[in-house]
Amino acid sequence: MAPPQGQQEEQRGRPASSFCVWLVTALLLASVLGGGACLVAYVVLPPGEAPGWIAAAGLALVALPWAFWIATGLYRCVTTRSADRAAAAAVAPGSGSMVSRAQGS
Question: Which residue spans traverse the membrane (predicted)?
Answer without folding.
Answer: 21-45, 51-75
